[in-house]
Write a structure and sequence with these properties.
220 residues, 6-stranded antiparallel sheet, 2 helices, 17 strands
């Protein structure tokens, strides 16, 4: 009896240690121009982040919509033997009903950029809405200042005008729009930041469009 329990415990340990999996789905990938570039499946979260990065006149901007969905999650053991398969389509980011959040990382600025989140325009098909709130994600100290350690990571409201004064760092911004998250398989999504992210002496940002992109990530 004791020997069976030991063997059972060892077998369970090997089973757990040998578990891995892969999951995938769809996400909206930004591009500028009349047609999207060829899109390979993103094999890692890093590849998903990198293909969201656009190098424009005066800055580099990475744009993502909180509409990513997972369409499958398969756990396997050992040499690919399936343990479980979850075929449900689920959103990967929690969200508020009736809101779509667009995340914007701004870096490499060559001008005095100002962020006006309420002037951003998100269009899905024939419907277009303006931003209703903007945020900066950073580590904040007890006194409300941005710190490099010892604080809490939070989204803080930017107000309707926020100057990006430090060109040496990246700003993690986001905008909330009053509509349900669009399907990442839609090809009719666009984001106009021409009035929402401006700098004197630099051209307006072009309209950013989105194409459906597959993602497939393995995990252990």
């Amino acid at each position: 009896m004791i020997r069976r329990r030991i063997l059972g415990t060892l077998a369970l340990g090997v089973l757990i240690a040998g578990c891995a999996g892969f999951k995938g789905g769809w996400e909206s990938v930004p591009y500028v121009g009349d047609a999207p570039p060829p899109l390979a499946d993103a094999q890692t979260p890093y590849e998903s982040r990198e293909r969201a990065r656009l190098r424009l006149d005066g800055l580099t901007i990475a744009v993502s919509i909180d509409n990513q969905v997972r369409t499958y999650d398969t756990q396997v053991y050992g040499y690919g033997v399936p343990l479980s398969v979850d075929p449900r389509t689920l959103r990967t980011q929690p969200g508020q009903s009736g809101r779509t959040r667009v995340r914007i990382e701004v870096s490499g600025m060559r001008g005095e950029f100002v962020f006006h989140p309420q002037l951003a325009r998100l269009a899905v098909g024939d419907k277009a809405v303006l931003g209703i709130a903007g945020y900066e994600f950073a580590m904040w100290g007890a006194a409300g200042q941005r710190v490099s350690s010892g604080g809490r990571w939070e989204h803080r409201a930017t107000g309707d005008r926020f100057a990006l004064q430090d060109r040496s760092r990246a700003y993690l911004l986001s905008i909330d729009f009053p509509l349900e998250p669009p399907s990442p398989e839609s090809r009719a999504i666009s984001l106009d930041l021409s009035k929402a992210l401006t700098a004197p002496g630099l051209p307006e940002l072009p309209v950013i469009r989105f194409a459906p992109g597959r993602w497939k990530h393995g995990y252990t």
